[in-house]
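Tutorial handout. Part one gives the primary structure; part two gives the three-dimensional structure as tokens.
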Amino acid sequence: MEELNSKINVLSLNMCLNKMKEILIISNYYPPEKGAAANRIEQLAKKLMQNNYKVSVLCPLGNYPKGELFSEYKGKFSVTENREGINVKRLWIYPSVSKNILVRIISVLSFSIGLFFFLLFKKTPEKIIVQSPPLFISFISIFILSLKSKKIILNVSDLWPLAAIELKAIKENSLSHKFSLIMERFIYKKATLIIGQSNEIITHIRSYFPQKKCYLYRNFPEHDVSKVEIETTGKQPIKIFYAGLLGIAQGVLELCQNIDLEGLNIEIHLFGDGAEKKEIVKLISSSKQQKIFFHGMMDRKELYENIKTFDVAIVPLKTRIYGSVPSKIFEYGSIGFPILYFGGGEGENIVEENKLGWVAKVGDYSDLNSNLKIISECSNLDIATMKEIVRKNSKANFDLEKQIKILLEEDVF
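Part two.
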């Protein structure tokens, strides 16, 4: 009888799996890699799985942000693994975070070649989500998938090559810029529909293709993030933290070099890893900024444990990047941390409209230091009150479940 029941259960499970809609996500980043890009894709994959989708992910061997293969992937050409019910296929990559453009091109091409042949010869679902950027990876993916008449859902989190121009990573009207523009317009044209992280992204895409189906998809946090308990201990000084990638776009090194904490009741705490890490550590160890502390990279659970008694989250960008909205606004707002936003663009509007904290003009360190002075003068009661307001407003306006439900009703996926 037990054997019969077991067979019935297996049969029922197989029937359920057969009824599930299949979808593939192609991304350059996926956990155990760190950062907003990896977290965003994992979150989307989990939400689709919770809504009766059989989800698989195609990505490189884990290497980001250090630019070297994680120990579990060294010596391997490809890996297939199951992460919390999601099938993850990892292809070989020559990893690098080098500033040498030739080395970076080789790194991108190494994954692109494997991706090209995988999509060309392997069986894939009819619905496929393609993450962009990286622009070349999304171009290769959409080129093959359009030949196979797949439903292509392009997930645009940043606008390239526009962001590269603003970050001065490439020169305007250069050969690489012109080639990037061709790829950009190709992926917008061939995508069945597009989901964008910001209204600016959608406006930009429709400037090329006015009739293209586009949907707003914010990088809201999971609901369990709001269960993280933070405290206002009454201890001084006020602790401001940054947690995330230490790359060129974030400009954390320049921030450390230009903030003035002299005479302020403030400490700055940094968590993360990336290209600027060594220079940041060197700056701090030189004792020029004795109120700045570096704690390295931590997984999310450990990070939340370390910051639960902190007071304010700082969200910087080196320059105003059209289309970009840092996901940290939503994540730390939902936990209840007031935000000191220093990135310009649509992020400013989100912080101001939702009363999430303070806004300093991007790149204006005089304005940033003025805001730091204001924060320094806040009492414990001021901080505690603001935390409650931020958490309440974020809970009301940053609802991932509602957002996914709307997109499913619109038949986006």
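Part three, for discussion. The mean pLDDT is 90. The CA atoms of residues 99 and 275 lie 9 Å apart.
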